[in-house]
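Fill in residues.
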């Protein structure tokens, strides 16, 4: 099961990257790790840095993919991104997005949720 799940995740991430490039984003990082956080995709569009969590599901039976991001994970992401922006001296606005990908038959349904969560 795990292997199949990982395959789907990789496929989903590639679909997300293609989708973002098509929308005019530049992919800066993929699977960026910092401390305990892992950022799936960092993409830039003008002076906006989008931090993207890719959620892939084989069905919507278990609720929406975006319901799977935990507050603790968000805190870690925020920390990682703050660090990244500081170290790289980026003058950007940061936005946290989710790209939800649901496998439907032979195709995939891609939903890009901008400002998916706010950090406090």
């Amino acid at each position: 099961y795990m292997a199949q799940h990982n395959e789907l995740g990789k496929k989903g991430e590639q679909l997300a990257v293609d989708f973002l490039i098509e929308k005019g984003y530049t992919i800066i990082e993929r699977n960026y790790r910092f401390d305990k956080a892992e950022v799936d995709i960092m993409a830039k569009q003008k002076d906006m840095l989008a931090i993207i969590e890719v959620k892939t599901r084989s069905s919507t039976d278990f609720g929406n993919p975006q319901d799977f991001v935990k507050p603790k994970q968000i805190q870690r992401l925020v920390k990682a991104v703050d660090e990244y922006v500081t170290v790289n001296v980026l003058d950007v606005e940061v936005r946290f997005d989710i790209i939800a990908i649901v496998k439907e038959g032979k195709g995939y349904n891609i939903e890009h949720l901008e400002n998916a969560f706010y950090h406090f």
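Strands lie at 26-34, 37-45, 48-57, 93-104, 107-113.
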